[in-house]
Amino acid sequence: MTAKHFALQALPTDLVQERMPRHVAVIMDGNGRWAKQRGLPRIMGHRRGVDVLKRLLRCCRDWGVEALTAYAFSTENWGRPTEEVEFLMALFERVLRQELREMMEEDVQIRFVGNLEMLPRSLQAEIDRAVSETKNNRGIHFTVATNYGGRQEIVQACQAIAAQVQAGTLQPDQIDEAMFEQHLYTHGICDPDLLIRTSGEMRISNFLLWQMAYAEIYVTNTLWPDFDREEFHQALISYQQRERRFGKVL
Ligand code: FPP
């Protein structure tokens, strides 16, 4: 690892290490508006958004967050103009190709969740390569939700379980939350503790519906391309001030 790039930044003194979220999820909203405000094409917002995500990943690593999940493309995003969809697919592919070396150096383990079969073949190949090359890395777990929809994820889990019941290898009363989770794309990753959404929208937008059951939600008006370390710091202060009861009386 070269100190030049990757020197660890200390946790701000007003944050408590023991109360850091283990898993942070982000809905990176506002790229288009950010670009429009500057008279730029929407894609410029996405391009800058990648740099912001890279910096956040590094910041999570520095401050002891174990997992970061980013909503890069939803099942609904196919409804955008064709040029924008094509740009995003090409961007994901290029970023993966360019960043693989640094992910290895920084010990990042990357995973993708979503219906990946519908993505362009060349992107699928790049995803397979990045996932397999980083699978033994033991640093931060970085998950990218691509062609992801929470309802679709739950439906495909139901289909897999129903097939086992139909085959006679599973009894309906053996279905419980733990076994259901094994059929989700995210199996093996702990549930998000903190969801951050930029650009002021107060919605979950079909993201990690099952996994988000007890996530704390932080919404900022800042547009994703302007989301920086200080904004993340503010989100963490807010998170650490909350009392998480998980439905219990403490
Ligand atoms: C939402 O902003 C943003 C997206 C749908 C794309 C986000 C993707 C990236 C930042 C690239 C990530 C890359 C990798 C490889 C993980 P919007 O377009 O909905 O903005 P608007 O609400 O202002 O229109």
UniProtKB/TrEMBL annotation:
Sorted keywords for this record are: Magnesium, Metal-binding, Transferase
Does the UniProt entry include the keyword Metal-binding? yes
What does the record note about the cofactor? Binds 2 magnesium ions per subunit.
What EC number(s) does its UniProt record assign? 2.5.1.-
Name the positions where substrate binds. 30-34, 42, 46, 74-76, 78, 80, 197, 203-205
Output the NCBIfam families linked to this UniProt entry.
Answer: PRK14830.1, PRK14831.1, uppS
Identify its protein family.
Belongs to the UPP synthase family.
Which proteins does it associate with, and in what oligomeric form? Homodimer.
Q: What is this protein called?
A: Isoprenyl transferase
User: What is the species of this protein?
Assistant: Oscillatoriales cyanobacterium SpSt-418
Lineage summary: Bacteria, Bacillati, Cyanobacteriota, Cyanophyceae, Oscillatoriophycideae
